[in-house]
Design a protein that fits this description.
Elements: H1 5-13, E1 39-40, E2 47-50, E3 60-61, E4 68-69, E5 76-77, E6 92-101, E7 109-117, H2 137-146, H3 159-162, E8 171-175, H4 185-192, H5 194-208, E9 212-218, H6 222-231, E10 238-243, H7 252-260, E11 275-279, H8 280-291, E12 298-304, E13 312-317, H9 322-328, E14 342-343, E15 350-351, E16 365-367, H10 388-392, H11 399-408, H12 411-416, H13 427-431, H14 438-529, H15 546-570, H16 576-618, E17 625-628, E18 633-635, H17 646-675, E19 687-689, E20 699-701, H18 704-729, H19 766-799
Parallel strand pairs: 1-13, 8-9, 8-11, 9-10, 12-16
Antiparallel strand pairs: 2-7, 3-5, 4-6, 6-7, 12-13, 14-15, 14-16, 17-18, 19-20
Helix pairs in contact: 4-6, 5-6, 5-8, 11-14, 14-15, 16-17, 16-18, 16-19, 17-18, 17-19
């Protein structure tokens, strides 16, 4: 449980304090350097200013090689809050910006700005803030930051970050303890510049607003205690106290524990217990920055050790090489067995790798020990496990355990023993009988752990970047795949639509071709079934209507087209013999149908001739007289030819000849289509002999028998004409139902009997009936034409 504020304040007023565990009391030897006032060094021939002199990030250079700079001019800047600039300690020229060895135990080079002074020491324009209490706190913090002030007690933490109070502060502690042996820089600063330290304290009081300010000084610095007590007497909020001398009482956590009895958490900060601490050198720099506008370009450095002829404290410009300080104090190298220069005190300092190392903001002492002044034998022996180191550890650690694990490289186990809680005070190494430099092992182990952490952090960041990149690439891949799939689907849809359109177009083309083929087939069929002379036919004489013909032709075309497609699909691989057989069968059927059609045509022609004669005879019945009892045919009138007259015989012969010619022509045309051969023309008197149910070719019969039959047909026609004329003249003589008519006589149907008198069998198939109908229509047309020609001849004879 933490002590109450009032309880702590009462104990401070009574000069009663707490203590911390461990600690040692070495020979302080402060009298070597605290007897003289602080002096100033002459300008060195060059100044080496490291870019990074604090905890945090380094800034970026604002100058280039060859630039002229003024005293107090900023050389770097950075927007990072954990960064403070550096400034030119004097006016001069930038001669180089390069890596140089700096004040660090590792001796590693760091980037530095090298300036060659011009000797004029000309200041840049300064901007002091005299009435700072009327200004906003941010203005003061910016002024402190721009002045480049970092903790001057040794930590080097940026002061403007530390001055920003995030939690209520009860105690503001000003550390003037300076517990390290040999070091007297703060002692002389408090003696000589107590008032300016007080001004810095007032500025911090304005920024932080603590309940009470405690200035702590060890009791081995009585002059500094009196000086600070004198300048702070007028402020009731300030307590100047003396604490017992004990090393390391000047440590931050140890001093807080001594003054307040509160312990800072292992992973916490002093602000967590209501305390904030600043060094007296930092307070002096704050007053310089705010009240005078001066940046941090110099500090007090103690030059001590028996190897120096004139130990003292000096104002050293930041960047001054250590060699210049040694020359000023008259370094006696003969007093040392081995040249050794230590930056810092004998407990926490480290040996410099070179005397060209520059002074930095945290440099407070340069120790040059003579022979046997310090135990510098470096005679490291084995640990005897005496536990003396654990007894004097102010942080209550186990130094020997940390030593073993650090030396063995077992960094994880060393860290388990709270390695980073070590303040590197060196008390353990001071009491070690084996003279083991324990602090050096701890520093090395801490550095290795920090490197591992940095590498681990880099690896983690790299892993995160890799995973982020992998996720981004995977996302881009998925997006590309989705895009490709979408494009493929679109292409597939377009292709399907194109295929559908193509198939539709193909179907349309196929349908159009089929219709064209059907139309062509229909036209070919009609052409083959009609006479060659279209002028001899008339649509008015057709037996069937025109629309029925069109339907028949269309049906025939469709049937042929269908048959053609079926033949192409099913019989595409048929051999030549099958094609020949089909052609022969088709030819035989066509031949037979043609013969029947020719016979029917002849019969119809004879019938038409008889009808024509009958019509002619009826027109002259009024003047007909009986002439011959054997013929029983009435005699023609004066205007009409009689049976025995040459005119009547001539007309009958012409009608019979025309009928035979037309029948012959129809038969020849049908036979030509079947056999694909040309027939020789015959005379108009030729007749065609038909055969019953035979597949032989149709031949033209020019025998006497055929001529006899033609004469009989002509005679019958004349007789019918006379009879018709007689019936027209005498209605009483009309034939009875029992009498034979021209249609009933055997002569009227000569085409339906063969030469032996047997009846011929007629094909009654639909194709034969269709062919017969077409042939009959043609015959009627021809007969009508013949009738017109006969009438024209009769009129010509009458006129004659």
């Amino acid at each position: 449980m933490q002590n109450e504020f009032s309880q702590i304040l009462d104990r401070i007023d009574q000069q009663k304090f707490w203590t911390f565990p461990g600690g040692v009391n070495p020979d302080y030897r402060k009298q070597l350097s605290n007897q003289t006032e602080i002096t100033s060094l002459p300008l060195p021939p060059k100044l080496v200013i490291p870019v990074r002199q604090h905890i945090g990030t380094a800034g970026s250079c604002l100058v280039s090689v060859g630039d002229a700079v003024l005293k107090g001019q900023p050389l770097t800047s950075s927007p990072n809050p954990f960064s403070v600039p550096i400034h030119a300690p004097t006016s001069g020229t930038v001669t180089a910006i390069e890596d140089c060895t700096t004040a660090h135990p590792s001796g590693l080079p760091e980037l530095c700005v090298i300036i060659e002074p011009d000797g004029l020491d000309t200041w840049t324009a300064l901007q002091p803030l005299h009435d700072y209490q009327q200004l906003d706190k941010k203005v003061l913090l910016n002024a402190i930051c721009d002045a480049g002030i970092a903790g001057m007690g040794g930590a080097g933490f940026p002061t403007h970050i530390k001055s920003t109070a995030r939690k209520p502060v009860e105690f503001l502690i000003i550390n003037g303890v300076e517990c390290e042996p040999y070091i007297t820089a703060d002692d002389r600063l408090m003696r000589e510049h107590a008032w300016q330290i007080r001004q810095g304290v007032d500025i911090l009081h304005h920024l932080i607003a603590p309940k009470v300010i405690v200035i702590a000084i060890e009791d081995n610095k009585p002059q500094a205690f009196k000086a600070m007590q004198k300048v702070c007497a007028d402020n009731a909020h300030i307590r100047v106290v003396q604490i017992p001398t004990k090393y390391p009482a000047g440590g931050e956590k140890q001093l807080i524990q001594v003054l307040t009895g509160r312990e800072v958490p292992r992973t916490g900060l002093p602000a967590d217990v209501g305390v904030m601490m600043f060094n007296v050198g930092t307070c002096y720099a704050i007053a310089d920055a705010v009240l005078y506008g001066k940046p941090l370009i110099q500090r007090v450095v103690t030059l001590t050790g028996e190897a120096l002829q004139k130990p003292q404290n000096v104002w050293a410009l930041i960047g001054t090489p250590i060699q210049q300080l040694l020359n000023h104090a008259h370094y006696q190298i003969k007093r040392q067995k081995t040249p050794t220069v230590i930056m810092g005190g004998p407990m926490m300092g480290f040996t410099l790798p070179s005397v060209d190392v520059p002074v930095v903001k945290i440099t407070n002492c340069i120790l040059v020990p003579a022979k046997k002044e310090l135990n510098m034998s470096q005679r490291e022996l084995a640990c005897i496990r005496c536990s003396a180191c654990a007894d004097v550890c102010p942080a209550s650690l186990l130094p020997q355990q940390m030593y073993w694990h650090s030396k063995a490289g077992e960094l994880d186990k060393a860290e388990d023993y709270n390695l980073f809680d070590c303040i590197e005070c060196g008390a353990c190494a001071f009491v070690c009988p084996s003279e083991i430099p324990l602090v050096h092992y701890y520093r090395k182990a801490k550095s290795q752990i920090r490197i591992q952490r940095d590498e681990k952090d880099k690896a983690e960041k790299s892993r995160q970047r890799f995973e982020a990149r992998k996720a981004r690439l995977e996302k881009e891949k998925q997006e590309r795949e989705a895009k490709h799939q979408k494009a493929a689907a679109a292409r597939k849809q377009v292709k399907q639509t194109s295929d559908d359109d193509s198939n539709s177009a193909k179907d349309k083309v196929a349908a159009a071709l089929a219709r064209a083929k059907a139309k062509k087939a229909s036209q070919s069929d009609i052409t083959a079934s009609t006479p060659e002379d279209p002028a001899t036919t008339s649509p008015a004489d057709n037996v069937e209507p025109a629309d029925n013909k069109a339907k028949v032709a269309a049906a025939v075309a469709r049937a042929k087209a269908k048959r053609a497609r079926q033949t192409e699909d099913n019989d595409g691989s048929a051999d030549k013999d099958t094609e020949t057989e089909n052609k022969a069968t088709t030819s035989a059927d066509t031949e037979r149908q043609a013969k029947v059609a020719a016979a029917v045509a002849r019969a119809k022609a004879k019938k038409a001739a008889a009808q024509q004669s009958n019509d002619t005879a009826q027109s002259d019945t009024t003047r007909a007289q009986p002439e011959d009892s054997r013929a029983n045919v009435p005699q023609a009138t004066d205007n009409a030819p009689t049976e025995d007259s040459p005119e009547a015989q001539r007309k009958a012969k012409i009608a019979a000849a025309v009928a035979r010619a037309k029948a012959k022509k129809a038969g020849t045309h049908s036979n030509t289509e079947t056999e694909h051969t040309d027939t020789k023309p015959e005379s108009a008197d030729a007749d065609i002999d038909t055969s019953s149910q035979s597949n032989s070719k149709v031949t033209i019969d020019d025998s006497p028998e055929a001529r006899r039959k033609a004469k009989i047909a002509a005679a019958v026609a004349r007789a019918k004409a006379k009879k018709a004329a007689t019936q027209q003249a005498s209605p009483d003589d009309a034939p009875t139902p029992g009498n034979n008519t021209p249609e009933d006589t055997p002569e009227a149907q000569p085409a339906e009997t063969n030469n032996d008198g047997d009846a011929a069998t007629t094909d009654t198939s639909p194709a034969a009936q269709r062919s017969a109908k077409i042939a009959a229509a043609v015959a009627r047309a021809k007969a009508k034409k013949a009738q017109r020609e006969n009438q024209g001849n009769d009129e010509g004879n009458t006129d004659a």
